[in-house]
Structure of Cysteine and histidine-rich domain-containing protein 1:
Amino acid sequence: MTGSEAGKETYSSAPSGSRTPLTLAVTAPIDVAPVVEEEEDDLSVTVSIGEKCRHSGCKTTFESDEVNRQGDGEGTICWYHPKPPIFHEGSKGYLCCKRRVLEFDEFMKIEGCTKGRHVFVAKAKPSSQEQFMECRIDHYQTPTEVHVSVFAKQADREQSTVKIEQNQIHLDVSLPASKRFRKSIELFGPVDPTASSVKYYGTKIELILKKQDTRSWTLLEKTNRDMGNINFTFGVGGRTGTIGAKQVILDNVNQAQHNVQHV
């Protein structure tokens, strides 16, 4: 209530003091330059004479490895633009340098701003996501050992792990083209991990498992199936079993026994 007039009370809704209007600060968006991963020349790949350098702004054509790829001679030097072109309101140029032109022909003539080496064949970049695959596993036994072959061609030893335990083996194998094979196998019988061994070859990984007893292994992988009198042949030179195969591979003696049992 602010007063009275002729016996009537009057009210006012006006503010008692002045207020400062609230101002919101708006931050302008910041242009972030795109991250550009530069290519690297794959020196293991043969280049045809006359092949152009892949770098933007470089006009060099390939003559020979000695001239353009090896050493630090003048022919190996590449002046190029590491960042992509930019076209804005008629002007043309590259994000990595300041020069801008109007005509497209002049744009094509803008000289490179960065010094480096030519790239005639870009080296393949490793994929960040691996693809899992299967590898064939073969095996045979002797009275004291079980020999296991994992057919993992060109396995990367530094990036692979093969672990032998008393009752299991664990395979984690890195392969070319971002592929990987991973499998754990519960063994048919116990082995001595300290007396067992692993060797890497170009086409496979070889495991020699030292048996803890003299039992004959019916299979490499432990199973609940009744295999009867089927056994591996001691000291065979070929394949006697394959993990993932649709049937058991038998020698002549066991095959004959198997046929008699099913007559």
